[in-house]
Amino acid sequence: MPIRRLKSDRFSSSSPRNLATVFTLPTVKAMVDCFERYLNLTIADGNASVDTIKTYRSRTSGFLSWCREREFYPALVTKENIKEYRKHLVDGGKTSPTIRLSLISIKHFYTACLAQKLVKDNPVIGVKAPREKREVASTIKYLTEEELQQVFDSVAPTYKIRGDKTKQVQVLRDRILLGCMALQGCRSVEMYRASLGDISQSYGQHYLKLDGKNSIRTVLLRPDLAEEIVQYRACRNATKEKLDSASPLVLSLSNRRYGQRLSRSGIGHVVDGYLEKCNLKHTDLERSLSPHSLRHTAGTLSLQSGSSLREVQDLLGHNDPKTTAIYTHVLNSQENNPATKIDITF
């Protein structure tokens, strides 16, 4: 039986939890406040990204809303209740990675409360997300070299914006955005966070420092892409924009937010716009491309072109080579299909 909200603020050894001592139930607000401090001071050693904190807060809020609807008191939630919530997410059509992230967030919530002695244990420990039924390699969607060339060739002014110089800024911005993502394997969040000060030059080589999901890495830029970034900065100077090291690499060109950092949704909108323009967004029922498909494109085409697994791992910033090996599986399944070796006319 699930434990319901108690009217009393206290319960004793005769309560359902069979505690040896009297325990004062914390308010939900006290637990949430405790979690907020934990998010800012403990997650990622106090240096968690805004996106990480926002995600943990959102997933935990969803769980607390579920508890409120069922009159479950968060401080009295049991492992069985957590399993019920997991089933609720499964029935709601949530994917295994989504459920895993929710459980991780709730686990952190109870870890924070346990550290402050607001709860007696962490009910999430031992509760795992369901296994992913799909083969991971089947989720890799990417552009062929011909399709990627088509996307680059399609870049042209698309906004009703002021002046030829600004149109030139937009063309270069979009080419740099697409190039960094599809050739250098940059994530959308890395492009969102990148600033002009993150670009450096040494012995004729240009580098871009990227603030990723869990770490900061530096990538060596292709010479042609680096040259376009130099032109891009010059064009922005010509528009009388005041540039410094904190100026965004990918800027917004809308009238309302002109010159500010292009949002992550804005980056997705730009990429999707070019995929739609080239009729590549939805090519069939099994293949639907997204901005993240550009990163998959960088990994897949690099391996196709003869780069080693280690080189691609460094390019994409993977900590675990097994993650990079997914792209090898994609290529092997295409090139080494046993069915094609059967000597029969079909």
Automatic annotation (TrEMBL):
Lineage: Bacteria, Bacillati, Cyanobacteriota, Cyanophyceae, Pleurocapsales
Family (UniProt): Belongs to the 'phage' integrase family.
Keyword Iron: no
Gene3D superfamilies referenced in this protein's UniProt entry, alphabetically: 1.10.150.130, Intergrase catalytic core (1.10.443.10)
SUPFAM superfamilies associated with the record: DNA breaking-rejoining enzymes
Pfam families: Phage_integrase (PF00589)
Domain Core-binding (CB) span(s) in chain numbering: 29-114
Stated name of the protein: Tyrosine-type recombinase/integrase
